[in-house]
Amino acid sequence: MNIIIRPEVPSDTTAITALTVAAFLNAPHTSHTEHLIVNALRSSGNLTISLVAEVEGKIVGHVAVSPVSISDGSQGWYGLGPISIVPDSQRAGIGSQLMRQAIVTLRELGASGCVVLGEPEYYSRFGFKAEPNLVLPHVPPEYFQAISFDAPIPTGLVSYHESFNVQNESG
After folding, report:
1. Strand, helix or coil at 65?
2. CA distances in angstroms from 45 to 13, 39, 72, 161, listed in the order given
3. How far apart are the first and last CA of the chain?
4. Omega cis (within 30) before 82
5. Can you state the angle between helices 13-24 and 34-44, rounded to 10 degrees?
6. How many other C-beta atoms are found inside a 10 Å radius of the C-beta of residue 101?
7. Phi/psi at 61 (nearest 5 deg)?
8. pLDDT digits over 34-90, tens only?
9. CA dihedral of residues 9, 14, 16, 19 (deg, nearest 10)
10. 0.90 exceeded by the pTM?
11. What's the rounded Cα separation, in Å, for the pair 112 and 154?
């Protein structure tokens, strides 16, 4: 399978929305707003990195990266996610390729580091680990992880962009 990882272009937005809805349709621990979050980040100008995975001309994966705020004033930190893979392409290495490219792109941008909310076993493969002094309120600490790019790990509360508070049309 030849996977192409590239930045999104405007004509990709409909496909990104559809794949994000499909990817989270049966996922546990979701409010099914991931597609709305990506669109809100894009609309607000806070979708710093938006990469797609393409196989045979079809978009099968997407990762979003946006700035986060940390209560200690640390600058240059980002949040990775949502990351979405169409269900019939999950567990084929597409998410790993998107993750690696997102991290490379963050380093190229001069980011201080990145946080992610997700499965510790999966994200630890990319260098993420729980940091006791970096907290996302109301989340079990082992599921909130960080990776530093040659910067000290901040101490404080992390806040994602307000786009993450978007509500589903039905809720």
Report:
1. strand
2. 14, 10, 24, 11
3. 39
4. yes
5. 150
6. 17
7. -155, 155
8. 898 999 999 999 999 999 999 999 999 999 999 999 999 999 999 998 999 988 877
9. -150
10. yes
11. 10
